[in-house]
Amino acid sequence: MAKVTIYTTRFCPYCVRAKQLLSSKGVDFEEIPVDGRNDLRSDLLARTGQRTVPQIWVGDTHVGGCDELMNLERRAQLDVMLAS
Known about the structure:
The protein has 84 residues and is of the alpha+beta class. Helix content is 45%, strand content 21%. It has a 4-stranded mixed sheet with strand order 2-1-3-4, covered by helices on one side. A hairpin with a 2-residue loop joins strand 3 and strand 4. The model has no long low-confidence stretch (mean pLDDT 96). It comes from Zhongshania marina. One of its GO terms (molecular function) is glutathione disulfide oxidoreductase activity. Keywords: Cytoplasm, Disulfide bond, Electron transport, Redox-active center, Transport.
């Protein structure tokens, strides 16, 4: 299974929703909380052009945020990405 990394904050409902989807699929993921961490927010900006969370990677592929993750699931492409 591909490594999944998700940048989050504590009170973000989209972060919670994305983590729930991944957990429901039995996916272990690395969660990187960015609460109060301007250095990590700057890292996100450099890597994605955005400072918003969640930001999700499956392997080396930047998926985007919660909406993009849910779209992958609706199109039955998330399992394919996770399996690679």
